[in-house]
Design brief:
The chain has about 350 residues and is an alpha/beta fold. The chain contains nine helices and 22 strands. It is globular and about 60 Å long.
Length: about 350
């Protein structure tokens, strides 16, 4: 296949003024649920994590507070943390006791068709209890919790957008029944997003869009990376390491996020202020860490990479010479070939 390397600036993702610092956004799903160890965090670990944030004076803020900082151009304060919970499982109430104890705000993204209906999900009475706390933000996680990547790979653009519009209308209607207003924040089910869905949601008025890409948030995008605190990554050691991850400033990268246009393709990143970073490596979930070469600010794989999996997360990590901390940037690609779509 003819090699075509296209570098895209990330101006499409850079609609806000630059920040001097960053926020670490955590994503949780289940709490103390031994039935689902890969998506749960033990209550012992969760308590330890929240206690650490309180004891060490981390600034735990709501998503709305984060948005106000981004919107106004204010710098995100050092040691800022945001806590988010996806799906709305009933075990959220276990976490609520701990979060209330430390007076922390948090956000719950609701799988709208399941709330108040399915046994494993929050009841309407529990939703009311959370509302009374006054420090809970509720967000949209779509109506039927679909993996948008599957629909993006298999449907034409028009049909895909029709599907997304229907999911949003159903979820927003039910959300308004519960809360009397439209949701302002959105989390992609399964962390699956693409350029069409991002643009569609932005036009619909959503302020921040939550992914499941590793990394910290510097306020430069509506797309917000989150650290998954689940399973083997839910212990305190992993939590503490995540607090130290800085955003890696990327000027351009290829391939761009979303639906893959070429396969195979060489992966490349161009750093901003590359002289401040060393020991850079590129990661692909299908292959792990890859051999790379560096030319000035440009980091790229030595060979073209052929993608077989339906979805892959691509990332780059470097060490900040000044802080000696790990800096990361990750994003999602979707294999739109017939072979990839069937995997």
């Amino acid at each position: 296949m003819k090699r075509i390397i296209l570098l895209f600036t990330i101006a499409v993702l850079s609609t806000f003024p630059a920040r001097g610092d960053y926020a670490t956004v955590f994503i949780y799903h289940r709490f103390g649920d031994n039935r689902y160890p890969t998506t749960s965090v033990s209550m012992e670990n969760f308590e330890k994590q929240m206690k650490f944030l309180k004891k060490n004076n981390y600034k735990v803020i709501s998503l709305d507070e984060l948005w106000q900082m981004v919107k106004s151009g204010r710098e995100i304060p050092p040691r800022t943390v945001v806590i988010t919970i996806d799906d709305g499982y009933r075990t959220t109430m276990k976490a609520f006791k701990v979060l209330k104890k430390y007076n922390f705000p948090f956000t719950v993204f609701l799988y709208m068709n399941a709330i108040g209906r399915y046994p494993d999900f929050l009841t309407l009475e529990q939703i009311d209890e959370l509302k009374k706390y006054g420090r809970v933000t509720f967000g949209n996680h779509l109506y039927s919790h679909p993996d948008l990547a599957k629909y993006r790979a298999s449907l034409k653009e028009e049909k895909y957008l029709e599907f997304l519009k229907r999911e949003l209308e159903l979820s927003e209607k039910k959300f308004k029944e519960f809360f009397g207003k439209k949701p302002e924040f959105f989390a992609f089910p399964y962390g699956s997003y693409d350029r069409l869905s991002v643009k569609f949601l932005e036009k619909r008025g959503y302020k921040l869009l939550m992914t499941q890409d590793r990394g910290s948030y510097n306020g430069k995008s509506t797309l917000v990376p989150r650290i998954a605190t689940v399973g083997s990554f839910s212990n305190f050691k992993a939590f503490y390491r995540a607090l130290k991850i800085e955003p890696l400033p990327i000027k351009s990268y290829s391939p761009i996020y979303g639906l893959l246009k070429e396969n195979p393709v060489k992966i490349s990143f161009e750093l901003e202020n590359g002289e401040n970073y060393k020991n850079c490596s590129i990661y692909v979930s299908e292959y792990g860490w890859l051999k790379t070469k560096r030319t000035g600010n440009r980091i790229e794989t030595k060979e073209e990479i052929e993608f077989h999996r339906f979805k892959n997360r691509i990332g780059i990590k470097c060490i900040n010479k000044r802080t000696n901390r790990r800096a990361e940037f990750f994003y999602l690609i979707i294999n739109g070939s017939q072979e990839g779509a069937n995997r």
